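Narrative progress, year one. The postdoctoral researcher (J.K.) led the effort to move from monomer predictions toward full complexes, under supervision of the PI. The following entry was the first complex the group processed end to end, covering 777 residues in total.
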Amino acid sequence: MKTDVTAEAAWAEFECDLEAGRAHTVRVCFPDHYGVLRGRRLTAGHFASSSRTPQAFCDGAMVWDIRCDIFEEADFSNYRTGYPDLYARPDPGTLRPCGWSPGEYAIMADACDAHGQPLAVDPRSLLRKVVDDSGLDRPITVAIELQVPDPGLKAALAPGASHEFVDTLAQGLAASGLPLGSVAWDRDRSLLTLTLQNGDPLAAADAAVLSRSAARELSKQMEVDLSAIPRLETDARPACLRISLESERGRGFEERLSDTGLLLRPLPLAYRGDEAPEVTIGDGRLEVGASSDANPYLAIAAVLMAATGPEAGTGAAAWTYAAVIDRFAASEWVAERLSPLFVHDAVALARRELGLREARITQWDLDRYRECG
Amino acid sequence: MSIEWVDLSAPDRSGRLRYFSVPASGGVEAAASIRVDPAALGWDGLDGPLTLEPDEHGHVSPLDSRREVRLCRLLGPDGGLSPACTRSVLDRALGEAAGLGHEVIAAGEIECYLLDPEDRSPVYESIENYGIVAGAPYEGIMRQVRALGPAGVPVMASNPEYGGGQFEINLHHGPALAAMDAVALLRSYVGAIAARHGLLASFVAKPAPDLSGSGLHVHQSLWGPDGNMFWDGQGLSRAGRGYLAGLLNGIAELAPLGSSTTISYTRRTDGSFCPMNVSWGGDNRTLAVRVLDEDENATRIEQRDAAADANPYLVLAGQLKAGLDGMTGNLEPPPETEGNAYANRDLPPLPRTLPDALDLFRGSDLAISVLGEEAHSAYCAILEPEAEAFLSGRPAEPDRWGAW
């Protein structure tokens, strides 16, 4: 089993596999606003002949909601701009085999405009910018918790026992050169945790989206019930995407973290009452629990910004979804670090999500209020 | 494995390939003995019987290596090309371009749905556009589709599209006839590959009222001794502007070539990314025609109104004839549309129903010049009943779910 595939070796392996007819497909991938992996599957031959050529996609992909619905309140792209192309420019250093899908390779791409400039809303470019601004280009470990409410899987798990899904996933991630440190289960075996060891911030985020995506992909193929949704039950502890790095907390860290909170928890199910995200500090390490449905690029960017932002935050923290949205919208320093356009559209997306959720009548509402009056 | 059968294939009126199998031992000369009723190819009213004239070369079937697929032209009772031969309709338009010294390069970009064959529901419901995970369970099909290159179908890529269970398939550009052959072959092979996986592939323009429509976008450029005729070193050339003007002149009256069913007009709704009016511009998905003037190699014009179940030969023949007329007439396009074309009520509308489209098409000299008088007359007569049924409120369309 391969555990370390450098980019150079990956290209050599790709060319070798292509020559031998073992490589048939290359996925050119980019993360959308929620860190969902989007892209296109190219024939390996076409990719080989055009690997530096950006792939064109509708730029609405950067500002659609979690269900791919587009809406006019986004400034980056809308019907008034005509939803032109974004150009996904492959990042040559990220080519790797998809160990969980033989014959396929994946390459991450930066979302650029027609002139090759990074888009102001591209998560990979935003993280690069934050890393450059913060100077915190330190190794980051990411642990992803995934909900696996599959009774068959639970029953099969025991110390020393193997399970086809877990084994295939672990072997596949390792064969891809992803830095999988461990696969673990929580006490009641409903949360699967993938820990990805020490990568630079961009590599760590790439590894996180690819691993989360691989787990979801394999679960569909193997018919295992798995999701990155933070909660399946009202009282459950929200599943996390834990980000840890060597860093001191610094004055005002919690306030700054709440200023960037929308990047840690972009969707409402991660909020339980007004609980703040878990923050652990010790031995010179800082660990923050973003939600399992967070965009890893933006969540890592949020932690780096909180670790290195201006000395004072903008006041007392409140951790309800509505309060976090308002706080993010009002944080001038966040807009300065990221871009006013990105902040505007992230807020528009979140307010839309909040509005949609509040407008819904749920089964809980019906059960509770049916006999009123 | 040696070839045992030759599948002689010709597109019917709607561009679906029809097959006539002959033993390989008898050679393709056996084609001369096959008699085809034009009505069997959707061409009621044209003279028959038709015979097949196979292309010089074919390809091994990607579905069965014992079979060779050989595309054909259709000959009429007099031994000349039949008006029912839609490949020849495109040949004529290409001949006109060649007479002007131009080679036509084109590419099709087409969408389809994967459906449950029992209840015809999409294989997944949520919109997962460009979704890497969403596409994974159907890779057994799409991987085979992307491997169709040796069969004359140079697929570059595929991805989930903006409808639950909808996929987009990108074809490499190439000489125009081969590019449209690729579209026809692709639809045929995708259907067969999906069926082998227990699914129904549908290229129908709109499989259900609440689903996104499926389109056939055609990218086109003209090349001459000096390179891409549409590129002047900085952007769209004078010749390109004339071609563009011609496309816009013809787009409304030629609509039935790209949208020949009542269902295909249900794609035309605000915000659907199917154009609603005569509009052009740069990189803007609300427009009917996009000018993508990036550099000499990539500069092309994309017309976006045709439905995925259209006859690709007729679609490109119509666009090419209209474009060449504009170019030779030195026409100037109307002002570029900026912003949301759906919200621009000053733009001339495209036909919204088959009867409206047919009214324009019936009296169109351009349409006659594309199809020839006999085929034009037959084409109108064939579409009339469905248009009349639409006007009377009767659902007259055949069940098109499995038509592709």
